[in-house]
Amino acid sequence: DWNMPDYITEAVEKIRAQVGKDEVILGLSGGVDSSVAAALIHRAIGDQLTCVFVDHGLLRLNEGQMVMDMFSKNLGVKVIRVDAEDQFMGHLAGVTDPEQKRKIIGREFVEVFDKESGKLVNAKWLAQGTIYPDVIESAGKGKKGQTIKSHHNVGGLPEHMKLSLLEPLRELFKDEVRKLGVALGLPHDMVYRHPFPGPGLGVRILGEVKKEYADLLRQADAIFIEELRNTPYEFVAGQAVDADNLPKNWYEATSQAFAVFLPVKSVGVMGDGRTYEYVVALRAVQTQDFMTAHWAHLPHALLGKVSNRIINEVRGLNRVVYDISGKPPATIEWE
Ligand code: XMP
């Protein structure tokens, strides 16, 4: 158990000693690990760090803008944002198989990242937000989500760019990374956000991914998350929460929560007319390790409010369902 300011001082000195005057590239995803790594490395070497943020068009509502505001505006970190939505959507057109979609998103990600990084001809280091559990995991089998991380480094970067790896979080567990992030000045809500998969909304739109679907899903998902954050937690029988450390709201009381887009139309009524529109499913789970999970017993009033808001505010959706499947046999994501 270490003291945070001392830890930061030590980590900063170590990074400075390691990279000297060299330039460093980091792939910023908006996730906790790469964000904390960026903040720490920036603290150590300032403008010698350039972050590359690939926006694949499968991020959550306003997420790209939030990442840019936080790093570029507030922290003064050099960030290159690559808007690659069209490229990703183009390659995903007509593809319905989940693993195929993951492969394409991973491949294009590496492509875009390498192309952008290749322009930073003076870079000598590639920084990654690898944390201790990743180190252990990649020594073992590696789960389906790891492709993006592990392949960066061996992607198509130009021959002359022999980048060395800089992994300043390698010895830290997730809770330590979070504490470090807060100590470095990252917002609490960002650092304690639920996990979000690398392929993003690509695996939360069942079957073929389309921009139209992603736009509908983003709006529904944002409403769900907003209501979870705004609804105070109250104990409901069947909850698997830590009784000594009671959550403040339903966002904190769940381990992961999101909306899923179902490309199925059902009939509804609006005013005098009938509608024929898409469905979203809400998923909220509680888990310690994400290997098994319980569906969260959200209060009916909360579910009702979210459903009303989605149907009233998102034109194109007329039905909301709640997923009450545990893992196993269901997985947390629908794909
Ligand atoms: P499942 O759906 O397998 O998810 O129960 C377990 C955890 O892993 C996340 N997940 C992924 N993360 N790339 C990632 O980076 C992926 O392809 C991927 N698939 C699932 C999921 O969000 C949950 O936290």
UniProtKB/TrEMBL annotation:
Keywords attached to this entry: ATP-binding, Glutamine amidotransferase, GMP biosynthesis, Ligase, Nucleotide-binding, Purine biosynthesis
Enzyme nomenclature, EC number: 6.3.5.2
Keyword DNA-binding: no
Reactions the enzyme catalyzes: XMP + L-glutamine + ATP + H2O = GMP + L-glutamate + AMP + diphosphate + 2 H(+)
Pathway info: Purine metabolism; GMP biosynthesis; GMP from XMP (L-Gln route): step 1/1
Residues annotated as binding ATP: 29-35
Domain GMPS ATP-PPase: 2-193
Function: Catalyzes the synthesis of GMP from XMP.
Protein name: GMP synthase [glutamine-hydrolyzing]
Organism whose genome encodes this protein: Duganella sacchari
Lineage: Bacteria, Pseudomonadati, Pseudomonadota, Betaproteobacteria, Burkholderiales
